[in-house]
Amino acid sequence: TGVDTLWAGVPVVALEARHLAGRASTSFARALGLAEMITPNLRAYEDMVHELGSRRARLARLREKLLVACDVSPLFDAISLAHAQERLAHSMWRVHAAGLE
Question: What is the pTM assigned to this prediction?
Fold first, then answer.
């Protein structure tokens, strides 16, 4: 998936779309500070893919930016995510146990 690709340090060109996959790709790009990888239409998408394939220095800069973003982004902070889910589960249990459903 796109998230796995990003985590591997491979920049993903995202195409703005109305369907879930398109929205997810653009959301991840924005969350990682890579809005420049979002394209508004298929022509722009094709142009960007071609540009990145021919301009290796730009691709390398994007890859470096992505790797740094992955290190600091909450998207890839599994420990914090697990703690947040634990807090949510405990909170839901307290509401249930108190009969406040």
Answer: 0.74
